[in-house]
Write a structure and sequence with these properties.
Rossmann fold; about 220 residues; alpha/beta; nine-stranded mixed β-sheet
């Protein structure tokens, strides 16, 4: 999957993956995940997610990375903020009110960029990537994060043949395969997601489960 795919989705405003409400699993499980108050929370492939606003309200500095400048600019505009823009390290960094969005390629992030991160929220990253990219994503993520970082990971699992992703189906077994060499994995919950996502039922999906994990990097 090339960068142009996501850039074109934002240009055409084809963003059905964007949620207009705070994710309920974030509210439910974050209290047991979050880094120390004031620590940084990393949100990969963040789009313009309102979850970042909620995370900041819990007392954390939020660092997001997003490929599309449209998404970044929309986020701050919709929050009524005028961010400071600073370029460096291959990114255009937009900063306002305790939230920094780095506009650029996730795979260009370095270990030093993540030095203050204590927690990660991944609702829309792993499931946005095709199988051939997921292993690369997981390896890069764990390579740049500090030891002990906690990751709240939300995935979809459904019969992949019934719908072309994204979002792609990511099973419990795949999460274990990707992350068990680097992290302790705890499955927090499994929820029937089809009733809450009728658009997927309309696309022919017969069943869909959302799996919520807590990963703790060794």
């Amino acid at each position: 999957m090339k960068k142009e795919f996501w850039l074109e989705r934002w240009e055409r405003a084809e963003i059905g993956f964007h949620q207009d409400e705070i994710n309920p699993y974030l509210r439910r499980f974050w209290p047991g995940v979050q880094a120390a108050r004031g620590g940084e929370v990393f949100v990969p492939l963040c789009g313009k997610s309102l979850d970042m606003v909620w995370l900041h309200e819990q007392g954390s500095f939020v660092l997001g990375v997003e490929l599309s400048a449209i998404a970044v600019q929309d986020f701050f505009r919709e929050q009524g903020q005028s961010p400071v823009r600073v370029s460096g390290g291959g990114f255009d960094n937009y900063l306002a009110d305790g939230i920094c969005l780095a506009c650029g390629d996730f795979f260009d992030l370095r270990k030093e960029d993540m030095a203050q991160v204590g927690a990660v929220y991944d609702r829309a990253s792993l499931v946005a990537l095709p199988p051939e990219m997921r292993a690369r994503y997981a390896r890069h993520l764990v390579s740049i994060l500090p030891r002990g970082t906690r990751i709240l990971l939300v995935t979809f699992d459904y019969p992949q043949a019934e719908m072309a992703g994204p979002p792609f189906a990511v099973s419990v077994q795949e999460v274990e395969s990707l992350y068990s060499p680097y992290a302790e994995i705890r499955l927090l919950a499994q929820e029937d997601a089809l009733a809450q996502n009728p658009r997927f039922k309309q696309r022919g999906v017969s069943r869909m489960t959302e799996n919520i994990f807590l990963l703790t990097l060794r």
